[in-house]
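This part of the workshop introduces the protein records we will be handling. Each record describes a single protein and holds just a pair of labelled lines. Instead of coordinates, the fold is spelled out as a row of discrete tokens. To make this concrete, we reproduce a full record directly below:
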Amino acid sequence: MRLAMHIAWRYLRGKKTHNAIQVVSGVSAAAVAVVTAAMVCVLSVMNGFGEVIEKMFSRFDPDLRIEAAEGKYFDISAPPFAELRALPCVGMLSECIEETALVEFSGRQLPAVLKGVDDRWRSMTSIDSIITDGSYSLFDGAFERAVMGQGLAAQLGANPHFVSGLHIYAPKRLQKVNMLRPDQSFEQAVCFMSGVFAVNQTRYDDKMILVSLPLARRLFSYSGSEVTALEVSLAPDCQAKKAKKQIQALLGKDFRVLDRYEQQHDFFRILRIEKLLTVLLLSFIMLIAAFNLVCSLAMLIIDKRQDIQTLRNLGAGDMLIRRIFILEGWLVSAFGALAGMITGVALCFVQQRFGLLKLGNGTDYVLSAYPVALHAGDMLLVAAIVLTIGMTAAIFTAHTMKTDTL
């Protein structure tokens, strides 16, 4: 192996008989470098978008969320929940009720997700940082208040500065619909808008209204200990994975404990699929670029026929000779990969520092420039893909050349 590597290194550095071989080899390495840099940049941009969206969710979603494995609600007066509060990893618990209701404002009606939260929920989240108009208030001592997503507020024409009330209608959960008097089959409430929030996600901005927990319990006929979800804020320096396992073991299979990724399972699943498809597409482009490597290696084998004959006279077998040219092709792809990764990392750092590539005109979106996040795992994946394709191309070329040529 050392002899084969030594000869391959000499062939890589040494001058070729025909200048065209050097040109084709240079083009091969450059093609590998360009595709490698593209893979690094594209995956880093996708990571950047993922981290930006994750930060947006973290302002609204809790560290962990407990839901019933079956059914819509559960009773928190059960013994396991008293033990849950005593766990060292649990910093704070917030009771929540989420149900669908009909909301009406100034003659406009829309279905919405009503989320009733207690006073602790505000401390668990960063809701104040995403209030775009008005303020966060769910009860002012006299009137019920509501905080609405900006998309829903726009559709209803609602504004926290209006004095008109927001009418909420919820079907009576424990009663059948009275077909003669359907209006008697709904619980009704009136509250006033105090603020508008923006998570920049349709799931929240276009569908959700925050109200007080007592109002939600009254509208949907839940008792004082019944909730649809229990949201958990972890203690400082507590790892989410470890806390999730402890809580799941305590509550058992009747409950689901969801971390932030599982709470947004659909979004992150789509992001993973997009990333996988991107890797496959760029790998296919790398496979096409490997044809340059095949051509340059085939030309080098033909150029070194005299050297091959000399090695045969010295006792070298076909295995050693093929190994020399396999390593030669692998070295070309390795240098191309190294140059491409250095270039890709440099471009990512420039984008992070200066934001050269803008989104639109730089003012129409939440972000002014494409976000970038370099992950070590992606770098290793890119290196593995490039080197594997390069080695495969070299092996294919060396083993398909005729024996008399070698």
